[in-house]
Amino acid sequence: MKNPSQKASESEMVQDAADALERAGFSRRNFIKGTGALIVGFSMGGAMEAFAAQGRPAVFGENASPDSPPAAEVDSWIAIGSDGTVTAYTGKEELGQGMSTAQTQLVAEELCVPFLRVNLIVADTAKTPDQGVTSGSQSHPANFNRNNLAGACATARQALLDLGSKKLGIPAEQLVAVDGTVRAKNDATKKVAYADLVAGKKFSLKVDSSAKRKPASEWTVLGKPLGRPDMTDMVMGTFEFAHNVKRPGMLHGMVIRPSAVGANLMNVDESSVTGMPGLVKIVVKKNFVGVVAEKPWQAIQIAKRLSVTWSPAPELPKQETFYEHLRTQRPVRDILLVNSKDVDQKLAGAATVVKATYLHPYQMHGSVGSSCAVADVQGDKATVWSATQGVWHLRATLAMLLELKPENVHVIFKRGSGCYGINGADAVSYDAAMLSQAVGKPVRIQLTRKDEMAWENYGFAFTIDERAGLDAQGNIVAWDHEAWSPVLGNRPVYTYPGNVITGFLVGFQPEEFKPRTPAPEPTSFSNNSNAIPSYVVGHVGGADHGAGTVKSERALLHNVISPFWTGPLRSPQRLQNTFAHESFMDELAAHAKADPVEFRLRHLSEPRMVDVVKAASVNAKWDARPSPNPHAKSATGFATGRGISCVAYEGDNGFSAMVAEVQVELATGKILVKRLVVAIDAGPVSNPDGLRNQSEGGALQGLSRALGEEVTWDDHNVTSVDWKTYHSLPLGFAVPKVDVVLLNRPDLPATGAGETAITVVAGAIANAIFDATGARIRQVPFTAERIKAALAG
Amino acid sequence: MSAISLIVNGKTHSLDVDPTTPLLYVLSDDLGLHGPKFGCGLGQCGACTVLVKGQAVRSCITAVEAVQGIEIVTLEGLGTPERPHPIQKAFIDEQAAQCGYCLSGVILTAKAFLDKNPKATEKEIQEGMSRVLCRCFTHTRMLRAIGNAQKEMAR
To answer: Mean pLDDT, 10 residues at a time, over chain B (155 residues)?
Structure first.
């Protein structure tokens, strides 16, 4: 594609959507922005006038790209074709979590059309609104409540009823929307099709966040366990991933990453590969080195043979002492999340003070397919097919990298291998773009396994100190949480290509680390990182925001600079902090000689937390008694136990509790997890089968992270660079039974759903090991050696 | 480069490629197939799996010259939406995927295993799948689907 024009971009749309727009005579962007003769304005009803007086709802981050289809416009989200087909546009991507299915259900439900009549267009900077990134369990709350996609659909339905009212001469209250038509409630023959009301024209309406959503009691599509429409193509092997994108004349690239973390490029000896078959070009910019060849295997051979010299690099901190090393690092950035200022005083007066330190390693996204992108950069225009979680972010930063205008960069999301956060998708998109720009032709690159694993933005390592006081009755009187965590880079967002490896290698710096100590007192409540335990009141700004009852509270985070790139990995920080909180809560329960479930319930105030804890424990047939179990050990050298863990994800964005049942082989420390029961409250269940699939996957991914996954390194390099050195549980391990209990809350707002199950796994397992053996394991992953050491200790 | 003859999903292809090229690159790049995928290039994860004479083979570490003239089946060749293989049907019925990237390895490894071990126990099936990775951890559904397909295939 020589000139990625608007026309060309529309050829990427599903045919029905493209047809609908073509019939309307508009390109997508012109369709939204235009004010031509075909455009029909809808009259604004009373609700709209009230809404207009209030101003636009804050539906995006304030940094949303200025030329994004505006989120406040219904037309940015919905278009109705002359054949009655509904095309919906979303920035929230299908990453494998079922989000496209659920969003299609939402549109079908709110607009009263069959599921199959909805075409969903996902994350494409030429077509869809800038919704930031698809991450952080934000898709369900963002698009299923009152704004954005759901709000646009509800507004559109009301507008269709109003238009139908005019056309049929029947008051809107006496009309109903059914199967793509507006018809009289009491006479099905008096009806008009949507297509005849709006076909191919604009709504020209603001999204009305007060527009009436269809109540869950009337849902016939949303809330149902519909199968995923992409499943058949995936199972037949015909689905097109980013990895399968092909462009005419496409070449193949490979990159050569530095020899060590922090090494600089000294020399590239091009003569080392002269004459190799398929060689097109060696590309060097600052510390970025890549090759372009005609065929993928040729590119790999050339990259392997190319003689590249790097400077010696400083030694990495020793892994053996890394957790202690974090405590002494300068500079440091201190963040206080909550501080009642009486913690030391309350601890001094407590009957018992309990302290423990928990350690969590860097872990990796470790996508099963290494990251891949295709870029076509020609002249002053670029098109990139990428599995990025944020197409608009990538567009903005690609423009910086390529020195092009953002409006000349077109990013099209194509699904990649499951990412669980920022894997190599953004970095490899930069790689592809750099190489394509250098040769003026489309270039595809898929990273080697080692390049993916050695240079991705790892999930955060943590050293966490917990301290709490118990009164004479065994109630918690104060809780102090203090954590150290290393950071470097992040998602690139709109302005930091240097937040991932490729951007850094070509000369961009990561987002500046801003030292700050001591931390200012918190002025607003945020528990996005779950640094604040669920059991405290979370008193900030004159009000309690927490899920618990403990009034004396402090949560303090020290960020220090990481030797490795870091970024969000499924349940970032929340998982690490929750492992510490929930393990420690169990330690407190043991000190109080209380049943761990009862002890939690005693210190929780949030009813939704109480409900998930009860649901998990009831479904697991919880054996109520203090831990450890004195009768857990069998004559055959095994011990069995059960543990519980729970979280108010980000404080209020989803709730889960899990009971784990484990068996420990006492002689070896080997554990067998036999059963996981997880209760989930994500607000209204949009697709129960999808939520179950997410929760089952989250439970087992959490198990793999708890039992085996750890980034390792030596003096200069990451050494966990393949599946022999980074330990992911394969399909054939002894998979526990996973029971998912869904708590449907049709009356409440939609919350996050994809990260709640994984967050509670490590705590539940550690607590079950303690119940079985009386040994407390405080370091992830729970390898047999560590469990054995804990048993001996 | 030299002429290589490959029989893939019942069709014969004549290709001019470096004979040491791993089969995966020829299938996905030269033949444009979507089923087999690059995961690790080391034979560790299974994403590149194809069937060669009914055996599950890791195409990322199999030179194309080694499979000349031998029947190769990729995930695309196993069934169609109208006539899915029982394993494919079971995966759809169980909705046994999340991102779907690993499916070539999962389904074809299961196919080769069940063909050879039609009466395998649940534990033996798990062992048979022990070298395949799914990082979305759709394990429970996948193993259930394979078990369901085993029953169907026995009928």
So the answer is: 92 95 98 98 98 98 97 98 98 98 98 98 96 98 98 94
CA distance A586 to A590: 6
Long-range contacts of A167-171 (CB under 8 A, 24+ apart): A167/A192, A167/A196, A167/A197, A168/A192
- Which ipTM did the prediction report? 0.98
Residue A295: closest CA among chain B residues belongs to which residue? B29
Residue ranges of E strands in A574-654 = 638-648
Q: What phi, psi does A414 have (nearest 5°)?
A: -130, 135
**Which alpha helices (DSSP H) does A407-485 contain, by range?**
425-439, 449-455
The answer to whether A740 faces chain B, any CB pair under 8 Å, is: no
Q: Mean pLDDT over residues A307-319, rounded?
A: 97
CB burial readout B105-126, b (16+ within 10 A) else e: bbbbbbbbbbeeeeebeeeebb
Under 8 Å between Cβ of B9 and B71: no
What whole-number percentage of chain A has pLDDT above 70?
A: 92
Instruction: Please tell me whether residue A620 adopts helix, strand or coil conformation.
Output: coil
Please, are residues A774 and A628 in contact by the beta-carbon 8 Å criterion? yes
Residues A663 and A671: beta-carbon distance below 8 Å: yes
Q: Which amino acid is at A14?
A: V
CA distance A603 to A475: 8
Q: Which of B35, B75, B128 sits opposite A732 (nearest CB)?
A: B128
* A486 bridge partner residues: A560
B100/A239 Cβ within 8 A? yes
A343-371 residue pLDDT tens: 999 999 999 999 999 999 999 999 999 99
Measured in whole angstroms, how far is the alpha carbon of residue A434 from the centre of its chain?
A: 27
Question: How far is A3 from A379, CA to CA, in rounded Å?
Answer: 9
Tokens of B9: 């999903």
pLDDT band at A748 (very low <50, low <70, confident <90, very high): very high
What DSSP line would sit under A523-589, residue for residue?
A: -S---TT--S-TTB--EETTEE-SSB-B-EEEEEEEEEE-SS-B--BSSTTHHHHHHHHHHHHHHHH
Which residue of B lies nearest to A704 if distances are taken between CA atoms? Answer: B137
Pairing mode of beta strands A288-293, A251-255: antiparallel
| Residues paired with residue B55 on neighbouring β-strands, in sequence order | B52
- pLDDT reading at A342 higher than 70: yes
Assess whether pLDDT exceeds 80 at residue A51. Answer: no
CA–CA min distance A403, chain B (Å): 31
Q: Which helix (H) or strand (E) holds A466?
A: strand A462-470
The tens digit of pLDDT for each residue in A569-597 reads 999 999 999 999 999 999 999 999 999 99
Strands A462-470 and A352-360: antiparallel
Reported confidence tier of residue A600, pLDDT bands at 50, 70, 90 = very high
Residue A35 has what pLDDT?
A: 35
Amino acid at A785: E
DSSP, collapsed to helix, strand or coil, labels residue A189 as: strand
Nearest CA in chain A to B75: A237
Contacts 24+ apart (CB under 8 A), A23-28: A23/A81, A23/A82, A23/A199, A23/A200, A24/A79, A24/A81, A24/A82, A24/A199, A24/A200, A24/A201, A25/A200, A26/A200, A28/A126, A28/A127
- Whether A678 and A741 have beta carbons less than 8 Å apart is answered as yes
